[in-house]
Write a structure and sequence with these properties.
Layout lengths: L4 E3 L2 E6 L1 H7 L8 E3 L9 H4 L4 H12 L5 H11 L12 E4 L2 E5 L9 H5 L2 H11 L5 E7 L3 H10 L5 E8 L5 H8 L6 E7 L2 H12 L2 H9 L2 E5 L5 H20 L9 E6 L4 H12 L3 E8 L4 H8 L1 E3 L20 H8 L4 H13 L2 E3 L2 H5 L4 E5 L2 H15 L5 H13 L8 E5 L7 H8 L8 H12 L5 H4 L10 E4 L3 H9 L3
Parallel strand pairs: 5-15, 6-7, 6-9, 7-8, 8-16, 10-11, 10-15, 11-14
Antiparallel strand pairs: 1-2, 1-3, 4-5, 12-13
Helix pairs in contact: 1-6, 3-4, 3-11, 4-6, 11-12, 17-18, 17-19, 19-20
The structure holds pyridoxal-5'-phosphate (PLP).
Length: 495
């Protein structure tokens, strides 16, 4: 029996795993969720013998039940290969008293590679399985890191095109350079005059545009998504939480069954939701600490039970977390509403019309395993400085938000071991990182910044940064938010 997926807003819209991945977003605007969260039943001893690939297979086979063993293993081995600069794929690093789960060893040096290395393979396999001959058009909004990771994953993948919209003035220099230099005849990158939420709203509305969908069908095209609204993005992220737990067990840092905390720098709520799924599967997790920057909608939500997006959007030094509408929270709302699709649909309607909703007391009780925290820009810089001076370890601006929030949390619980999720290489945000750790003059040029960071940190410059130095700019389009659909039509030649 296949594990089926349905919309968070309507349980009658039911599809297989491969169809959910193909579609990205449910036609009613909801997100696909599995009908139940499967349990991890293998013993710790067996798990601790597994490498990343073997574990990924054990986890994904529980969710992607309509993929064959060969198909899944093939996707996994193509995803987690030499694109990663370490065979561990997701190594744990201890610095001072903190454990860091480094998720930035993939091709684009941010954690998005963990899922976007495998998504293109899951998606093209899904198309084959479902006898889809249409060309798949990946439409993606990015706060900076998803865009490049998705472009790298789909570049020159046969039968696909990828279109990425990013906030023109809302990403770091390296992030922008990484995207606009992307190679591949099937890649399109467009800056928008707006912020990430505008980009995400625009993309969602293009997905839900029936008229456009008809034109697409006639032209033999269909949309899918590489954003974390696609369940195929979320599920591969469960693997590294389990992997890190096993690694701590292997190193005798924790006893079998000992509960640990994860501290996750959060924006769209995808990464931390994967940790929540891991907990539901049976991984011994105490608290999930949700760390936000100045855009602290989620912190307020965990404090008060009210989600209120009606506030100013603040540009920070952790741009991948500059988000006011965290899409994946919808999947959590569905879960804490007792899998109630009607209630979820109501809340989401309120969010889109009023920009605000308040959950019930019962729902709040189910949020017990979450702790919200936030760090300002100054606090973020302080944490980069503190970690560096105390341990010599250099963290990026997003990881620093998590460290800052965790250090505050330590006042209420010092005993539980915690893993801080390190989501990007400091090289991706070199300028801000350098400002926090050195009094030296910081060069203008990003290659010189990288060289200075290397001198200070002793960490080799990743290939992803080295190759930017001489890369040619291939994309320079910018549009207003109300022209996004027109841009898509022009690219696809379906005007
Ligand atoms: C995307 C991103 C985040 C936020 O992750 P979500 O899954 O959107 O919550 C945090 N840090 C970095 C570096 C990212 O790229």
């Amino acid at each position: 029996m296949n594990l089926m997926y349905h919309s968070t807003r309507n349980s009658n819209i039911k599809v297989t795993a491969s169809q959910a991945i193909l579609q990205g977003l449910s036609p009613d605007g909801g997100l696909f969720v599995p009908e139940y969260i499967p349990k991890l039943t293998i013993s710790m001893d067996r798990l601790s013998d597994m490498n990343y690939h073997e574990l990924a297979y054990e986890v994904l086979k529980l969710y992607l039940t309509d993929y064959t063993e060969d198909e899944l293993k093939d996707c996994i081995s193509k995803a987690y290969d030499g694109k990663f600069d370490t065979p561990d794929i997701a190594p744990i690093r201890k610095a001072g008293r903190h454990f860091y789960l480094e998720l930035y060893h993939g091709a684009t040096i941010a954690f998005k590679d963990m899922a976007l290395s495998i998504l293109p393979h899951l998606l093209t396999t899904a198309a084959r399985k479902n006898n889809i001959s249409d060309e798949i058009v990946i439409l993606t909004a990015t706060s900076g890191d998803t865009g490049k990771a998705a472009l790298a994953g789909f570049s020159d993948v046969k039968g696909t095109k990828i279109i990425v919209f990013y906030p023109k003035d809302g990403v770091s220099r390296v992030q922008e350079k990484q995207m606009v230099t992307q190679k591949g005849d099937n890649t399109y990158v467009i800056g928008i005059n707006g912020n990430f939420d505008d980009a995400q709203t625009g993309v969602k509305s293009i997905f839900n545009d029936k008229d456009l969908e008809n034109k697409m069908t006639e032209a033999g095209l269909r949309f899918s998504s590489a954003n974390s609204i696609n369940i195929g993005r979320l599920l591969p992220q469960i693997v590294y939480y389990i992997h890190s737990y096993i690694e701590l067990y292997r190193r005798n840092e924790i006893a079998q069954g000992e509960k640990i905390n994860f501290v996750v720098p959060t924006g769209n709520f995808g990464n931390i939701l994967a940790a929540y799924y891991a907990k539901q599967m049976g991984l011994p997790i105490n608290k999930l600490i949700c760390a936000s920057n100045d855009n602290k909608v989620l912190y307020d939500f965990f404090q008060t039970g009210v989600y209120d997006r009606n506030r100013d959007f603040i540009l920070t030094i952790s741009p991948s977390m500059d988000i006011l509408v965290s899409s994946n929270l919808e999947r959590l709302i569905y879960s804490i509403a007792g899998d109630d699709t009607h209630k979820t649909a109501e809340f989401m309607r309120a969010l889109s019309t009023e920009g605000i909703y308040e959950i019930t007391t019962d729902m709040r009780k189910r949020l017990e395993c979450f702790v919200g925290g936030y760090a300002t820009v100054d606090e973020t810089k302080d944490s980069i400085h503190k970690v560096y001076t105390e341990t010599g370890y250099v963290i990026d601006t997003h990881t620093a938000v998590a460290v800052n929030v965790y250090d505050k949390y330590l006042n209420s619980d010092k005993d539980t071991k915690s893993v801080i999720v390190a989501t990007a290489s400091p090289y991706k945000f070199a300028e801000n990182v350098l400002e926090a750790i050195t009094d030296k003059r910081i060069p203008e040029d990003d290659h010189e910044q990288a060289m200075l960071l290397k001198e200070i940190s002793g960490v080799p410059i990743p290939d992803a940064i080295n190759e930017l130095h001489l890369a040619e700019i291939r994309h320079n389009k910018v549009c207003d938010t109300d022209k996004m659909r027109a841009e898509v039509e022009e690219i696809l030649k379906i005007i």
